[in-house]
Amino acid sequence: MAQLQDKLILPNGVEIKNRFFKAAMSEGMADKNNSPTEKLVRLYERWAESESGIVVTGNVMVDKTALGEPRNVVVENEKDLDLLKRWAKAGTKNATHLWMQINHPGKQVFKGIVKEAVAPSQVEFEPKLQRYFPVARELQEKEILDIIQRFATTAKIAKKAGFSGVQLHGAHGYLISQFLSPRHNKRTDQWGGSLENRMRFLLEIYKRVRDEVGHSFPIGVKLNSADFMKAGFSEEEALQVIKTLDQLGIDLIEISGGSYESPNMTGLNVKESTKKREAYFLEFATEARKISQAPLVVTGGFRTLSGMQEAILEGATSMIGLARPMAVYPHLPKEMLEGKRESIELKPRKTGIKLIDQTAMLELTWYSNQLERIGKGKDTKASLSPKVALIQTLWKNGLDVFQMRRV
Ligand SMILES: Cc1cc2nc3c(=O)[nH]c(=O)nc-3n(C[C@H](O)[C@H](O)[C@H](O)COP(=O)(O)O)c2cc1C
Question: How far, in Å, from the CA of 23 to the mean position of ligand 1?
Answer without folding.
Answer: 6
